[in-house]
From TrEMBL:
This is Spermidine/putrescine ABC transporter ATP-binding protein. Residues 6-236 form the ABC transporter domain. One of its GO terms (molecular function) is ATP binding. It comes from the Bacteria. The keyword Transport applies. Keywords: ATP-binding, Nucleotide-binding, Transport. One of its GO terms (cellular component) is ATP-binding cassette (ABC) transporter complex. Coiled coil: none annotated.
Amino acid sequence: MEGMAIRLHDLHKSFGATTAVAGVDLEIRDGEFFSMLGPSGSGKTTVLRLVAGFETPDRGRIELAGQEVTGLAPFERDVHTVFQDYALFPHMTVEQNVAYSLKVRRVPKAERLVRARKALAEVRLEGYGQRRPAQLSGGQRQRVALARALVGRPRVLLLDEPLGALDLKLREQMQVELKALQREVGVTFVFVTHDQEEALTMSDRIAVFDQGRIAQVGTPAEIYERPATPFVASFVGTSNLLDGETAHRIVGAPGTYNIRPEKIRVLKESAEADEPDRATATGTVADVVYLGDATRFLVDLDGGGRLTALQQNLETSAEDVAGYRGTRVRLAWHHRHAVRLPS
Ligand code: ATP
C-alpha cells in the first residue's frame, strides 16, 4: 500500500477575528506532486505554514509519515520549505548555500561537497557552485533554492508560490523542470499557487481552497471536468454556469450546470447538429475576441442567457473575426459536456 506523507485532520487556525483555516481534512500520498490552489486569502499558505510548523493550529492534528507532529518545532519535522523570495545567503557561494543545512547537521565536509554538487547537478547548475547569488539570474536563484531544499532529501518539500517572482516564459519553463525534478527525486512536493493553469499543468492532484476550506480534491482532469461547486467551476478554467430557467431551457432538467467554452461549437444558424447526442441553442454573437490560437465568442441566447464558446483557429483568421459580431449562430455541444454541479 502506498504510504501517506501528510495527513491533516480537522485543522483550524484564526488570527484575531480572521479565520484563516476553517476545518481542513487532507491526505497527501508519498511521492505526489500536490498543489494547494485558491484565491488570495483562502488559507493555503496558512495550511502550508501549519505543516511546516511555523504556525500552531487552534485545533486539529497534523501527521507526517504516520507520526503526529502537531506540537513539534519546524526543525523536528522532516520537511523543507522553499519560499518565493528564495532566502539565499548573499555572502555565501552557491555551493555553500546548498551545503548549509548539511553543515548544521554536522555532515563531514567531503560528503557535504559531494552531496551539494549532486544537488546542483539535479537542478542543472553544474559549474555554478563558486558564484554568489547576486551573480545569478532569477531562474538560477530559484534552482539554487531548490537544490538547497533537496540536498538533505526531506520526505516532503513545501513550496510557497516559488515561481511567483519569475516572468511568464521562465515560469512556464520552470514548471516543466520542476515537475521533471520532482519525478526524478521522488520527494513529495506540496505546492501553493493561486495560478490555476500552473496547478493543472504540474500536479498529480489538487486541493482547491475556498474561504479556509477545501472545496474539492482531485486530479487536474477531475477538477476541470467535474467541478464539485460553482466556485471550483469558475476558479479553475473559464465556465458557463447555468441555472434556473436557462438551465432548464438548454439542458432540459433542473439544477446548476457548467459547460466549458471549448466544448461548444459555433455553427451557422442554419446548420444541422450532426450527431444525435448534440444539444443546440441559437443566438446572436455579442462579442468576438481573436486570441491568436483561438477565438472567443460571446453569444446572447434566444430567450435569455449568454454562453462563451472557444474555437481553435483552424480556419478562422484575424480578418474573419470582426465579421462575426452581430451574426446569428447555432451553438452545439454533447449532452455529456453539460456537467451538473452537486447541489
Ligand atoms: P495568498 O495567496 O495571498 O498568500 P492564501 O490563500 O495563502 O493567500 P493565507 O495567507 O493563508 O491565504 O491567509 C488566510 C487569511 O488569514 C487571510 O485573510 C490573511 O489575511 C489571514 N492571515 C494569514 N496570516 C496572518 C497573520 N500572521 N496575522 C493575521 N492574519 C493572517
